[in-house]
Structures are given as C-alpha cells and as structure tokens.
C-alpha cells in the first residue's frame, strides 16, 4: 500500500501508516490505516485506502452512488472495459485521414454512439496539453471515475494518482487498472501534502462536486510551483440563474431522474478562487459552446471571461499554471455523517445501500407532498419531474422516492397512480417498497387511474425517517413507456376502496380490459384509411374479440376475407361525392370509430346517430378518446397543441389484476401461435429450396408439356 506524499485529512500531517501487511482486494478492512499524529483511523475498501469521511452535505451524492453502484461490481477482468484500447483508437481516429480504415482496424463497421463525445473530448485534451511534456510527470486526477481520463496521462508517460469519491468506482478502477494509484476521498479536503503534483486534472468532474471553490483551492495547494491545473468538460450557467432554471435543464434528463447528480454551476463558482490567487497564476480559459454571445472564439483571457461570462451559459475548460508558491490554508475534517466502510458494505445491493441513508436525509426533504414545488433538484434526483401548472398530478420516470418521518406511518398506504398508454402496449408492473421491503407488486392496466390501498404489515427498522419507493418495470424501453403519474401518496388509518375508476391518457387496449370487459363482439365504424384500420382490427383480434364492421362501400371487398370480422353495413363514397352522406345515418350502435386524423373523424361523426358520449375514437398508434371530446389529436402520446387535458371517463372495475392476468395469458397464446406460423413459413421456404421439390416441379412441367404436345 503506497501512502507516499499523503497526509491525514483530519490533522493535515504526513503521518499515515498502514496497520495491515496483507489484504484481499475483495474485502473491507476497518481502521486499516492510522495517523500517528492525531490517532484518526481510516478504512481500506476493496483494496483502496479511503482517506476521508462522508459528510451530511454529501448525502445526495451517496444516494447517487448507491443507486448505480451495482453496475460497477468487480467480478473478473472485463475486456469491454479496455479503456487503453479505446484511447488508442480515438487517438488514431483523430490523427488519421482514413477514419473508416481506423474503425475497421478495431472491428467496427459503424461509428459507435460514444465516439463523437470521446473524439471532441480528445481534441480538447490535446489542445490543453500540447505544450506540456507529460513524460515522468506526477499527475493527480480528481474525480477519476473508473480511470478513463487517468489512462490518457498514463499512456503519455506520466505517473498517475486517482482520487474518487465513490468506493464502487475506485474499487472498479483499481481492479481494472492497478498501474494507477487509487485513493478514496473528497476533493474539498485532499489527503495529500502541499506541492506534490506536477499536474492536477479534473475531467467532467467539477460540476458533480459539493464545494467547487474549496475543491479548486485544494487543487492549487497540492500543485507544485510551475505545475498545471487542467479542468475539462464542465458546463456553467449565468450567475443570476435560479435553482428552478437549473431544474428545467434536467427535467427530461433520464440519468438525473435516476439519481446521477449532474449540475450546471454558476460561473462564479469556477472563478472565485482564481480571482483571489490570480497574481500567482497564469490563467487560460477555453470554451466549446457559448449561449448568448455571437460570434465567439474558443480561447479567452481570464479578464475577458470574468467580464463576459457571468451573463452567459456554456461549457468551460481551464489551463492554469501555478507560477509561484502560494500559502493556502487547510481545513480539518468536519463531522462525519456515516463511516465509509459502514456505507460500502451493502453498496452493491441498491436497496440496502439506500436504506442506510434514510435517517440522514435533511429535515427539509422529509414529508413533502406529491405536488410540492420546493427543492426541485432534490425531487428530480428522486424521479419526480417538475409539476405542471394547474395539474393535480406529477410525472415520474421509472421510480419515485418520498421520505416521511415515522409519525406519518399509518395502517394503510393510499396511492393514486396512472401509467399512460403507449402504442407498443404492454402490461407493466408497479412495485412499492417501504424501506426497501416489497409491500406491493402487480401488473396494472395502462390508461387507468388505480386507487391502491396497501396494508402496512412490515416493520420499520429506521429510527427517524422511512422511505416509500414506487417502481415501474416495463419491457418497453422507450422513455414514454417508463413514465407514470402519481396524484396522491399518503398514509391513512383505514382503507376506502371504490370500484369506480377513471380513464385518462388511454388507448385501445385500455378499453379492451375495461369498457369491453366480458364482451364477445365490438362494432367498429371504419374510415377509408385502410392501413390504420388494419392496425385497429389486428389489435382487437389479438384479444379474441369478434368484430362487426361498418365500412366504406367502395372498400368492402378488402375486409370481407378477414376472420372474426363481419361487415354489417356500408356507407356511401363521400370522397368522390361529398354530398352522398348529407342525409345518411348509421342506425346500428357503435362502440369505436377508427380514423387516423381529425378530418376523417369529423366526417364519420356526422353519420352517427347514437350518443357520442358512448363512442370512442381510435387514432394512430391506438391512442383513444371519447368521440364527443373537442381536443386535439394525439401523436406519440402527446397533445399536438396546448389544449385542455383529455376528458376522464369513469367506469366500474372490480379488480385490475384479473385483466392483466388475462392479458398475459392471451399474450402467451398469441406468441405461441405466431411461433407456429413462423415455423410453418420456414418449412415452406425449406421445401421450395430442396432438391426433391425442385425435381418434382420440373417433372410436372415436363408432364404438362408432353400432354400439350400429345393433344396437338
């Protein structure tokens, strides 16, 4: 264990020694390192010395680590994480005129999704380091992650020390790249003595830090005179920006909604320390994007930057040389919220990892209601999108967390929840956890407001707070399919269930499981749009419904051959003669109107004589609404213009679970039949290509020719 040039973060003395001679990189050793000056002990976590503590203000970052740690669990050497190979490829790709040949050399036929980002990042790295000889330099990489950027310096001949806040990432990096020296700790209290490194770097790391000014000050402290501080890939916003404006940036950022604590810091946070020490620094500023200033160039003097950038937004990079020694004060460790080893031991189990943090949540984040608009960034990190004005519900992406004080716990959890309809319909599962323990898991129908009353039969093992987490699992990976709405989440002393439910943001399959439940046939008024009609018909037939069709008179032969479909009426050709339907009215009761756009819907609506409040309009993709509704069409689940929300249709529903079970059985049957059909097609294709059937075909053709000639 190499503790050279380290110092105790508690007393700031270079007096750290190890208390163990041998260790296993898969184990956690408590008090493995001690300070001979102040007696403070530190842990060895999966082979990495953790020289620091976890503070109260870092709890959100700890939630992020716990939510994503499992993907970095070290199992065995993984070729997919060969960063050196990627770095080599990006370097060759940057310098080559024949980029296709470079991709081919590395076994790639197409440009991978990540290459553009790595390519642009590499260009800036080369720009900022082109005048620096990296050979034999001592480099500190702050926020090193799993080591990708550290390896760029290592490949150029430097000796690299990596500091990473996440125990999971540092353990992963240490296992994959032991040629780098790894430490765990915080950037605002670096566990290294003064003036130890030739280069201190942070790539796309500063905007993740709790205290950017203090971290930059610490970076200058450990930098040798004549050395360089290099920061890359950080976004910034105007100094006048608010937390609400920052939250708007991340409202559709799926990584943030899953707990990745991305930030867009104010410009002043990057420059505060540099202003203070500017006489001892040579500061160069580089930008890749700037918003609010045209034209702009990529390099600026520090004076230009601090004059123009406080009103702008964009991305920023710094190349700073420390011209002389700077006397920088050091601070000691603050109060520890949780011991790193205690936090790490259950880290690869997200539920248990999060469970350890529940009592540490700050009081202002506890007992928030669903629609509470305060602390928008905290709500985003816990899955809640920003509330919409005038809405009594809130959108959630994949999972929602709410923290409550123990006095709020009652006998029943009441949850009012809706999963919006999507064209590629599935039956998603909603799972509800109380302090990581499952209390509910069930398939639910999309497009229905489900009023759930869940008995609280589990013991709560926290002392101050508890956590409710609502998770959505769907086989449909689209962003829209991973969203759901919550309008109420509260604890009640008793349940008040009702069989009356409501439809909203629903579709054809929603109607099948609710409005048409128990029916064997449905009457559908068909528009002239054949492609759309066939999609509707096939969706209905999939669920074993017999269809009575009212079709255009000039298209009846197209529908006459379809199984389980009966043409019960036709209507005149209004396309060739618009007046032909002026006095025409359909007398049969109709449940559905299949029309791909509002123009066709309006024409068909004129010939319907039944109550429109009982008829549903099926649009493209299966999205549905009452025919009587005066709203815009729906495209991909969204209203095409700003209008009132879709009308809510109420109906009686005894249990949604029976529909989802029925849905699952039918899906399995359809899948089985489709496989049989595919097998039959493959057999026919094989028969057509076999030698026997080719010869047999020739024989019949020859026989036919002989017969014809004989007749002549």
TrEMBL record:
<feature type="coiled-coil region">
    <location>
        <begin position="663"/>
        <end position="690"/>
    </location>
</feature>
<keyword id="KW-0175">Coiled coil</keyword>
<dbReference type="InterPro" id="IPR029063">
    <property type="entry name" value="SAM-dependent_MTases_sf"/>
</dbReference>
<dbReference type="GO" id="GO:0008757">
    <property type="term" value="F:S-adenosylmethionine-dependent methyltransferase activity"/>
</dbReference>
<protein>
    <recommendedName>
        <fullName>Methyltransferase type 11 domain-containing protein</fullName>
    </recommendedName>
</protein>
<dbReference type="InterPro" id="IPR013216">
    <property type="entry name" value="Methyltransf_11"/>
</dbReference>
<feature type="domain" description="Methyltransferase type 11">
    <location>
        <begin position="140"/>
        <end position="230"/>
    </location>
</feature>
<dbReference type="Pfam" id="PF08241">
    <property type="entry name" value="Methyltransf_11"/>
</dbReference>
